[in-house]
From TrEMBL:
Biological processes, Gene Ontology terms: cell division
Region listing for Disordered, in residue ranges: 1-21
GO molecular function annotation: protein kinase binding
Species this chain originates from: Deinandra increscens subsp. villosa
Transmembrane region(s): none
Protein name: Cyclin
Lineage: superkingdom: Eukaryota
UniProtKB keywords: Cell cycle, Cell division, Cyclin
Amino acid sequence: MLAITDPDQNQLPEKSEPESATPRVLSILSVVLERLVNRDEMLSSSSSGGGRLGKNLEVFHGIRPPAITIPKYLDRIYKYTNCSPACFVVGYIYIDRLVHRHPGSLVVPLNVHRLLVISIMLAAKILDDEHYNNAFYARVGGVTNTELNRLEVEFLFMIDFDLTVTARVFESYCLHLEREMIMWDGTKLKNESGSRNTIEDIAEISVEDMESFSSPLSNNGGLG
């Protein structure tokens, strides 16, 4: 197994405080994002070989889908970065803005992890008084610092640097997420809350997984 970060001084900090329950918003977002990815993946398959459908976000693509799931990835970001739960909602808003500004964009297994770590990092810079730098988010997210910096710039230009989220917009998205959960079978979340993943379960990613995160445009390999 290959740790997601380097040892010694570059090792991610250990959690000395007792682990608190994962915020409900992470579970809600996991369900919503998984449904979005499944839908867009079907659209991508049905339109194979035609048009520009899904082409806009290829800059965020890895070589192949990573093994780590969306719930575990969100849980990892939350536990290591200590960013506020609101950052996850705002990060989702940024991704939604990106998709709406570029019709035909598809959030698929090849790009969803990069989109998440970038959008949540940007939200933390806007919302939180204290936040980690890009290098730390790169280690947590499994990308090289160089790649994260490059993709952050790509992301910012694609949303026209529109990072402002008003209280009304934030509330409307929270209501949207709540409605999504009401429509979803709550049994899945009950099962997940009964068997939470600890940080030890997801702190390491195999060599194969690290390679699957790699971006064709990255010289040093991606998400690792």
